[in-house]
Design a protein that fits this description.
heterodimer, A: 329 residues, mainly alpha, ABC transporter involved in vitamin B12 uptake, BtuC, two-stranded antiparallel sheet, 14 helices, 2 strands, 1% strand, globular, B: 374 residues, alpha/beta, Rossmann fold, 7-stranded mixed beta sheet, 6-stranded parallel beta sheet, 13 strands
Chain lengths: 329, 374
């Protein structure tokens, strides 16, 4: 059940549970690392921080959707392919068919959501294991993104940029914050509201914690799972539109391996892959942590091989920290 | 709110989202349909015009032929088709992975060049990046007794299959990636080291020997990445050009964008980077986009490699890239070699392709060829 249960509102705000402090600790230690290893002062420039946020925010949106799925005790491997599919559909409609931007974006997000709903139906109603169902969706969505009806396996571009793409890449004065950052904030807030303020969210925790007990308690398990995977698909579609705008192309090969980055974000934040615990605020902290790690490694021009090793060690380290945590069950 | 009302609220919100999305669906489906219909009618008109043109041309050449025959005083009774029939040549063509844009271009070029020769019957197969599938395809071609086999192998695991085809008497033309040993007829491949060196030369000339450069390399474990990078560094030695920042972009445009952002934040003063060399065109284009997001695209020169017609060359034409160097696929030479083999002519065991430089000045003339080193 939700960890907020049985707390007064004061405690809820001022005594977050230990996983939040752990995630904050991880972020602070990464920031300290950045200050020490600052690449001749590049780390102290405002632009570096905006770039770090800009780069990681779409991954954060992916991770928000994935958080809900993982809390329900499942996993969604298809988000990377859904990013490619949504980006291809978005650019196809925008550049080739001259559909107005908002409608193109809504359609792209809609198609990704339909894929999410399908995964949800498979997992919730047909009882296919989440790993298998979303693995299938991963291959299917990738195929659809490359099919003759969509991209025909060619990157879709337009030059100069369509005005809607320029709008999505816009920076907001006075700091020059990229638009994607507030969008990520809104997505995270929506995820938080769903998980902590709606009864479906509480039920998601219940299913992830102990599915059999949830069934006995009368939780509509199938419907809640459907909802979780739909949110995962929706967020992947949203992220896909922003990825396409950033790359200025609908790339059928895009999004490869993004599901792993998103899972890493969720895990580093402190949401347990076993389900039943975690939350949106943890995922936001995980997003910032991973974003800053990558930025610090990049501005110091660390070799890719070393980067991968450091990245792997950090993910495993975060998982180790979780296993130390006293079990909630 | 009671739990039930909260559940209702959640359902309501989801319903609204789905409705909005469905409305979007309907509108864009309509737009798509309309656009498709318009395009179909435009295409039909174009096809009709084209056909008329072709017919006119055929009639013209027939008339010319007839006139010649009359002049020679010969009676026109030898059908031209039978000569083509007699020398018909069946070419089996196995591509390791059509999924890559460069290889897709190779497929298109092979088909286009084969179509120029009516006597060629081309059987094209795609192994979808699986060595086993490609081995099976080679065996199918051998048992189907094609006249010539053109193969762009996935890797050296194709050596045995290629040798088997070669020993059964079928001439084998190996494209781009080599197999081990000598059991093939002809290898045609491009030279990444030449390209790396030529990029280096061009950069030294363009920057007049001084400046700061960012290099976005391919995946470190791949040989093309090393071959496009090392000669580039050699060319910059003992000049005033410094490579400020170099990083692996793993042949991925999203990684290239990330690395370019890092290069820009390491060198935040305007004018601190003069040139970016991307080991392929998508990387150079992604770097341009990253610089554009930072408002610095006009102070930097972008150079790429590959020069696919719809990608690098197009971006040179639009002024995004200053230059791109072609990594040729040898499709024209492969078809030509197949025809020469059919005629019984000798062909070299190894053909190394040159490259071609496209810049804003020469892009409309089709670039400047740079021959391979002997």
């Amino acid at each position: 059940m939700s960890p907020d249960r049985g707390r007064t509102p004061l405690e809820r705000w001022f005594l977050p549970d230990r996983s939040v402090w752990r995630a904050i600790g991880a972020l602070v230690s990464v920031l300290v690392l950045g200050c020490l290893w600052n690449a001749d002062g590049a780390f102290f420039a405002l632009g570096t921080h905006l770039d770090a946020l800009w780069f990681i925010a779409p991954f954060g949106i992916l991770a928000c959707g994935l958080t809900v799925v993982i809390i329900s005790g499942g996993i969604d491997l298809s988000v990377g392919s859904l990013v490619a599919l949504s980006g291809v559909v978005f650019y196809l409609l925008l550049a080739r068919h001259e559909v107005p931007g908002p409608i193109a974006a809504a359609t792209a997000i809609g198609i990704a959501s339909v894929c999410g709903v399908t995964s949800g139906l498979l997992v919730g109603f047909a009882r296919v294991p989440p790993f298998i169902a979303t693995l299938g969706m991963m291959a299917f969505a990738r195929g659809l993104a490359k099919s003759p009806w969509t991209s025909d396996n060619v990157k879709i571009t337009q030059y100069p940029d369509p005005s809607f793409v320029a709008m999505l890449n816009a920076r907001i004065p006075p700091l020059g914050t990229p638009l994607i950052v507030p969008v990520f904030a809104v997505a995270a807030a929506c995820t938080w509201f769903f998980l902590r303020r709606l009864v479906s969210g509480t039920r998601t925790y219940a299913i992830g914690d102990n599915e059999r007990a949830a069934v006995c308690a009368g939780v509509p398990v199938r419907r809640v799972k459907l909802l979780a995977y739909s949110i995962g698909g929706l967020m992947a579609g949203l992220a896909g539109v922003f990825f396409a705008a950033l790359e200025r192309q609908g790339n059928p090969d895009g999004g490869t391996g993004y599901e792993l980055t998103a899972i890493a974000i969720v895990v580093v934040g402190g949401t347990s892959l076993a389900g039943g615990s975690g939350g949106a605020s943890l995922t936001v902290l995980g997003t910032l942590t991973i974003g800053y790690i990558r930025k610090i490694l990049d501005i110091n021009a660390v070799e890719t091989s070393t980067q991968n090793m450091i990245f792997g060690a950090i993910v495993v380290g975060a998982a180790l920290m979780q296993s130390v945590r006293p079990s909630r069950r | 709110m009671t739990p039930t009302r909260r559940a209702n609220a959640a359902t309501f919100v989801l319903l609204v989202v789905i409705l909005v999305v469905l409305a979007g669906f309907a509108v864009s489906a309509y737009a798509l349909l309309r656009a498709t219909r318009e395009r179909a009618s435009a295409e039909a008109a174009r096809a009709a015009a084209q056909q008329a043109q072709v017919q006119a041309r055929v009639a013209e050449s027939m008339a010319a032929l007839e006139a010649e025959r009359l002049r020679e005083g010969a009676t026109a009774n030898t059908p031209a088709a039978s000569t083509a029939e007699a020398s018909a040549i069946r070419i089996g063509y196995s591509q390791c992975n059509r999924g890559e844009p460069w290889r897709e271009q190779m497929d298109k070029d092979i088909k286009a060049h084969a179509a120029k020769h009516p006597e060629i019957q081309l059987i094209a197969k795609d192994a979808q990046n699986e060595a086993l599938r490609q081995i099976a395809q080679v065996k199918e071609f051998v048992s189907g007794k094609v006249d010539t086999l053109i193969i762009s192998p996935k890797d050296t695991s194709l050596t045995a299959a290629v040798a088997e085809a070669f020993e059964s008497g079928i001439p084998v033309i190996v494209l781009d990636r080599a197999v081990e040993g000598e059991k093939y007829t002809c290898f045609i491949g491009a030279d990444n080291r030449l390209i790396g060196a030529e990029v280096g030369k061009w950069v030294v000339k363009t920057l007049n020997g001084t400046g700061n450069v960012v290099e976005l390399k391919g995946l470190a474990s791949t040989i093309p990445s090393r071959d496009r990078s090392e000669p580039f560094h050699d060319a910059l030695k003992s000049t005033g050009i410094k490579v400020l920042y170099e990083a692996d972009m793993e042949w991925l445009s999203d990684r290239a964008r990330e690395k370019m952002q890092a290069a820009l934040s390491r060198n935040p003063q305007k004018g601190s980077i003069q040139l970016v060399y991307g080991a392929n065109d998508p990387a150079a284009i992604a770097a341009y986009n990253a610089a554009k997001d930072a408002g610095r695209e006009n102070e930097i020169i972008f150079v790429g490699v590959d020069a696919l017609p719809h990608e690098g060359v197009e971006m040179v034409r639009r002024g995004v890239l200053a230059a791109t160097f072609e990594y040729p696929n040898g499709a024209d030479l492969a078809i030509e070699t197949a025809l020469r083999l059919k005629k019984g002519e000798a062909v070299p065991k190894k053909i190394t392709l040159g490259t071609r430089l496209f810049t804003r000045e020469n892009v409309d003339q089709g670039g400047t060829p740079i021959p391979a080193k002997p």
